[in-house]
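Run log, item B.
One chain of 250 residues. Sequence copied directly from the ordering sheet:
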Amino acid sequence: MVFEPFKHRADEIYKRADVICGVSQKYVDRALSVNKKCNKGHAVFLGTSLETFDTDAKSVEPLLKKLNRDELWLGYCGSLAASYDIPCVISALKILKDQGKKIPKFVIMGDGARRAEFEKDALESDVDVVFLGSLPYDQMCAQLVQCDIVVNPIVKGSAASIINKHGDYASAGLPVLNTQNSSEYRELVDQYHMGFNCSNGNAKDLAEKLQILIGDKALRQEMGRNARQCAEEKFDRRNSYKELIKTILA
C-alpha cells in the first residue's frame, strides 16, 4: 500500500516510452509488462571499460600485495550492507578450517553500515579476513587481480540483477562463486562456465564449491579465461554501448 503510488507513477512512464532500454533483461521485462507500444526492449549491461580496467590493474600499486604466489586469496568488492551475505562466506571458510582444510585469505574491498558486525564475525570465526575499506576504482582493479577466486554473495530477495561487480569480476579473469538468486546472472555463470552457482545462504554448499576451486588450479585457470571472455563479449562498454547509440539514433 505504501509503495503503490510509486509503482503507478513508474507504470505510467513505462507505458509512454517509445523505446525500452535496461541494464538487465529483468528490468527490461518489467517495463515491457505494461508497455504495449514496444515489441521488444534492449538489455545492455552496466559494463566496464576493459581498457581502463587493464591499465589500472597493471599500473597501480595494490594496497595489499601477494608475496607468495602459492597462497590463495578470495576476493570481494562492494558494499558492506544488508544486501550482501558476508557472514555466509565467513561461515563457509570456518567450515573448511574446522575440517582441517587450508583456506584462502578473504580480501574484502568496500565499506558500509555492517562492517563492524562483519569484522566481529570474522574475529569470532578465527578465519583470515582482511578489510581494506573503500578503495579508489583504479586501486580496486589492481587489488582484485591479486586474488585467485571472487565471491558474489547476495542475500535472498534482493532486487539486484546484473550489477557493477559482475563486470569487474569478469574483467579480472577470475572464477566466481555466486549465491545471488538472479536467474540472469546465474545463467551467465553457467553459460560461460566461469564459476559455480551456490544455494543462497547455504554456507555448506559454498564451502564445498570453494574447496573444488582451491584444489584444482587448472579449473581455476579455465574458468578465469572463460570469465574474461564473458567480459569481452558482454561487459566491455566499447562494444556493448553501441547498441544504445544505435537505438537512440534509430
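Observations after the first pass:
- The beta strands are 21-22, 42-43, 73-77, 105-109, 129-133, 149-152, 176-178, 195-197.
- The chain has two domains: 4-47+236-249, 50-235.
Flagged for discussion on Thursday.
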